[in-house]
């Protein structure tokens, strides 16, 4: 499968990895939208949140715990935003499930 995040997980292409465990990996986004912009991915491939394949609920929940952990390590543990674009129409460009961890600048409300 030609998946850029699978290749990062396998080490085939480089990334600035900030965290790794048996289930997940977190690395810096190559084109950061905010001063802190990390991506948390499951090591097992899943296309998106709309098609999570054989990821378990525990593994999906783990991604949130890791997102908070890497936000804290990056110094933005009190103020960060998680984003999961799902589907091309919602801005997803890499079809390997990933959680954006955004922080380091004041962010306006998106809704409400
Ligand atoms: P999305 O548009 O939600 O699918 O997010 C994909 C993100 O992956 C974008 O913010 C890209 O900047 C980022 N990205 C794409 N290729 C790489 C890469 N090789 N290393 C790190 N980040 C990447
Ligand atoms: Zn993949």
Please explain how this structure is put together.
The chain starts with a helix and ends in a 9-residue tail after the last strand. By secondary structure, the chain is α+β, with helices and mostly antiparallel strands. The protein has a single domain (4-103), classed as HIT family, subunit A. 21% of the residues lie in helices and 22% in strands. It contains 2 helices and 5 strands; from the N terminus they run H-E-E-E-H-E-E. The chain has a 5-stranded antiparallel beta sheet with strand order 1-2-3-5-4, with helices on one face. The chain is globular. The protein has helices spanning 4-10, 57-73, and strands at 17-20, 24-28, 36-42, 80-83, 99-103. The mean pLDDT is 97. The longest helix is centred in the middle third of the chain and has 17 residues, at 57-73. A hairpin with a 7-residue loop joins strand 2 and strand 3. It binds adenosine monophosphate and zinc ion (ZN). Adenosine monophosphate binds next to loops. Adenosine monophosphate (AMP) binds next to loops.
Give a brief outline of the structure:
21% of the residues lie in helices and 22% in strands. The protein contains 2 helices and 5 strands; from the N terminus they run H-E-E-E-H-E-E. It has one domain: HIT family, subunit A.
The rounded Rg comes to 13 Å
**What is the mean pLDDT?**
97
Question: Ligands in the structure?
Answer: adenosine monophosphate, zinc ion
**CATH class group:** Alpha Beta
The oligomerization state is single chain
Q: What pattern of helices and strands is seen along the backbone?
A: HEEEHEE
Q: How would you name the CATH homologous superfamily?
A: HIT-like
Question: DSSP strand (E) fraction?
Answer: 15-25%
Shape: globular
Head-to-tail CA distance between termini: 40 Å
Please name the CATH architecture: 2-Layer Sandwich
Beta strands, count? 5
């Amino acid at each position: 499968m030609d998946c850029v995040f699978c290749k990062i997980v396998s080490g085939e292409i480089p990334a600035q990895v900030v965290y790794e465990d048996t289930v997940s990996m977190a690395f810096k986004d190559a084109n950061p939208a905010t001063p802190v912009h990390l991506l948390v991915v499951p090591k097992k491939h899943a296309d998106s949140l709309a098609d999570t394949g054989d990821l378990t609920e525990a593994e999906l929940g783990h991604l949130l715990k890791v997102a908070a952990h890497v936000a804290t390590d990056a110094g933005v543990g009190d103020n960060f935003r998680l984003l999961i674009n799902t589907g091309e129409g919602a801005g997803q460009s890499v079809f390997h499930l990933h959680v954006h961890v955004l922080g380091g600048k004041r962010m306006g409300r998106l809704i409400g």
